[in-house]
Fold this protein.
Amino acid sequence: MKAGIRSGALARIFLVAGFGVALSAMPANAQKPGGSISVGLEIDIPGFDVLKVGVYDAAALTASSALFDTLTTLDANGKPQPKLALSWEPSEDFKMWTFKLRPGVKFHDGTPFNAAAFKANFDRQKDPANKCRCAFYISNVNNVQAPDELTLVYNLNDPSVNFPSLVSYASQTNAVHSPTAWKTKGDEYNRNPVGTGPYILKSWTAGDRMILEKNPDYWDKDKVYFDRITLKPLPDAQSRFASLQSGEVDLIWDDEYSADNIQKAQKDSKLTVHTYLGSGAQVYAFNTKVAPFDDIRVRQALVMALDRKKMSQAITNGLSRPASNPYGDGSWVKCKDDGALPEDLEKAKALIKDYGKPVEFKMLVTATPRGRMVGQVLQQFWKRAGANMEIEQVDQATIPPRAFMRQFQLTPWRIVDLADPDIQMYSNFKTGSPVALANYSNPELDKLLDHARVTADTNKRIDDYCAISRLINKEAIWFWTFQNTYYAISTAKLKGLPKMYSGMIDVSRAWKE
Amino acid sequence: MAFFVARRLLYLVPVLIAVSLLTFLIASLLPGDLAYTILGDQATPENVAALRRDMGLDQPIWWRYLSWLGGVLQGDLGRSFRTGQTVLQAVSERLPVSIELMLLAQLGALAIGVPLAIVCAARSGGPFDRFMTGTAFGMLSVPTFLSAILLIYFFAVELRWLPATGYVPFGEDPAANLRFMVLPALTLALAEWPSIMRVLRSDMIATLQEDYISLAKAKGLKASRILFVHALKPSSLTLVTITGINIGRLIGGAVIVETIFALPGIGRLLIGAILTRDLIILQGVVLLVGAGFVIMNFVVDMLYAVLDPRIRHGHA
């Protein structure tokens, strides 16, 4: 039985009224080969050698989606489709996935792509001696086997119903590199990546342009149109937008924190705003083992004291979309009742009064203008309810270890846009998981999480996940502020940009009218 | 003169040591921990302890400073943990961009400031002089990022004359390189010309009251000759000093300008290193920039001594 039929993860497309969102519809026969595209990214890409860079950020993903291939790709409905793998098959317990690979594919340096090459990629990342930060993202995979040239077997530690969707985007652990290249180039490989993708790295000036040229031997070259892609790091949001307006670049990465530019572009007929309403959310975890958050009344009070609409207005001109559950509009999990607590200041005040002791606590905040702004807004909401929050500013890199060691009272976190909620929900809420930041244990919650991950029937899984949301909302162990929304702005002539799953802007199959 | 140079060179040593110590301390005192930054999501207490041991982060700070300084003295400033590039590689790739930017900005500032100073000094107290002195004072308080955005808006977005962002190396296409450099250099020049103009103007006014100028006037020399030949040269001593002082300001301005105009220079390298906690690159760049600044000032001192013999003989 094909997994594609089993895991019917249908992400529906929503057009948000008043946003004027242009979702990339794919008109037939309008594709024109030739020409080039210039893309403005937010930051300098540090490189592609996964042992060095650990994780690919949004800028690196744009490049990696052109340079590398992955086993699968997601179509516009969020269903996995073949790429380097032609078909896949799960075991009965969903702990083993067997992929049949596409024959005749070669890396840009001529090295043949096969199961052994893929396994070499995986083993290099998994090897404890390499101390790769990326290993965290494949901790669910026990090992990868290559029984023959074109067969690849993933053995997982935990069942995964939707596994082929999860290996679809060109992240640090999914992009396939040429083993010959990293062995021969050593330290230089980081800035001279070699994949099987539709584009080949032509030149790269540090801190400036990266030029990619069409791969003439690509296995799917009829669906690749631009002859050349130029990627430029343009760190300043205002001048990045100005470069798009003046025609120097055709497309820019953007986010809701430069709301002015997005709203300006929405009114400009020469520009198109590409919006992807992702799954997941920006979230916060209470440490329920320490006062005052060991008391449910305090946790509920703080959640009820929020006014997400006002907060959105304050930080992003109203672009941020309030979240009442961890799944979001981009997820196939849709709940009639997600159990969200009401935003009710009077109730919040009453709960704190009922608690009877002063509510004083510290919240971790990233030491960035955005982090401070969000922290100050929350501080004001909670002050009105009678709670005193002190902002503790820390470096971005300090938050994960502090969170894992439970050295916090309240910490920001994120549930990223993935094709399936299981991985993140399970690690965030299962008793004993290192990422179960709330230090909260509940047998009913564990049972629902265990059931949802081994059930193939999507409707039954939706029931499980909605029950999970109701339970977490009622207990107020975590709360959600805004959904993940991903933006790109381009000239109106650009067509064929796929949905920005996980925030990845993939221009490798786009074209200009 | 040789004795004078040697003495000044000796002064450089403690200054450079102080620069290296400050650089190291600032980088060490930044919030956050290098081990956490490198390990990210895998920062379990055991992993962190092991990595800190491997990197020598568990050693006392004086020991770390001395071993870093030992490396620096042998020409090894270390390697970025993020990109695998050595500090010297990263800096040498980007230095030409920043030097070109600062040179063009300085030339631009002189091209605006010097003629205005001469005209104002010649007609000091007149309406043009008063207007320009006021304007210069106002320009001093306009932040660089604001003038950058305004210039981009007018020249790139509205008029489409010049590119808003980007860079082409001079060796690849000199004409395109200059097109990309106009706006960033002008942004920096706008911040620099007021100080040049004000200093040169007051110097020229004092010079114009000297006896030999009156003599030149009495001889019937042309006013323009008096201004450009007899008055400008003695007044330009101060200009040399101001240029030296401006180097520091230019470096600071370059950080902002390179970020806004997306120029791949030292300033961008520095900002990137701060944002990603790439301490090795950060320490190396700050040290090199600091040393460069100290050495440039040394050169300015020397130039000053060449221009004015009173200085090197200790009579100034």
